[in-house]
Amino acid sequence: MNFNFDYISYAGDLPGAGDQNAVRMTFQPVLPYPVGESVNFFLRPAIPVIFKQDVPGAGGFDNPGFNLGDTGFDAALGKSFPSGLVLVGGVAGTLPTATDDDLGKDQWALGPEAAAAVVRKWGVLGLLVSHQWDVAGDNDVDTNVTGGQYFYTFNLKNGWQISSSPTFSYNHEASSGQRWTFPIGVGVNKTSIINGRPWKFGLQFWHYVEAPDAFGPDWQVRFTVTPVVSLPW
């Protein structure tokens, strides 16, 4: 049960872009279901709760206030191999759940997803890539976006880890200089047993080496709280 709390600072060529920021929380549970030996189906929704989000408009920047954003999800099959290799394949999508027009596209989007990871005693290295097209909803804007996440974890002692999982995207419909959003991330995790239940606490810092020239993220701090709970099945 992942709770990701983000503070994002922005930059760009638009006047005042460097003074803008966002505060949000994303609830992202991982719901696995075993379907065979070393094979699991999983569903992973990502529900964003936006406390503050500065967005550009005709008269400068505006903050719509407390809202929900568009909900992302992926549904896939994962296979673990004795070598420590993990392969995942499935679909990723976006649901138009934003409660303010400035914070969503009013579109349904869908596309393929694939991931690969190596699990060792020292930690984990992996990469997830997906692509989405708009399949329904508002036709004024075309969605054609490749997204992904690279992740790494290096195990230390006493429940500590060096770990980060930045997300990136490439907008194929954007003009030159507006397509890539790519951060470099570093962070730490600590796993503790509280009342018999494992809890993981994490802190990450992302620096965006590529972002849209006009207005995009500059740096981001993510605090993560992850309680491990038993599934009913």
Overview features:
single chain; 233 residues; mainly beta; Porin; 15-stranded antiparallel beta sheet; two-stranded antiparallel sheet; 17 strands; globular
Commentary on this structure:
There is one protein chain. By secondary structure, this protein is mostly beta strands. Helices cover 0% and strands 69% of the residues. It contains no helices and 17 strands. A hairpin with a 2-residue loop joins strand 15 (180-194) and strand 16 (197-210). The model has no long low-confidence stretch (mean pLDDT 96).
What is the compact description of this entry?
The chain has strands at 2-11, 21-28, 31-36, 39-53, 55-57, 60-62, 67-68, 71-80, 85-95, 107-120, 123-137, 144-155, 160-164, 167-171, 180-194, 197-210, 216-227. The protein is an all-beta fold and 233 residues long. A hairpin with a 6-residue loop joins strand 11 (123-137) and strand 12 (144-155).
Order of helical and strand elements? EEEEEEEEEEEEEEEEE
Helix content: under 10%
Radius of gyration: 18 Å
Multimeric organization: single chain
Give the full name of the CATH homologous superfamily: monomeric porin ompg
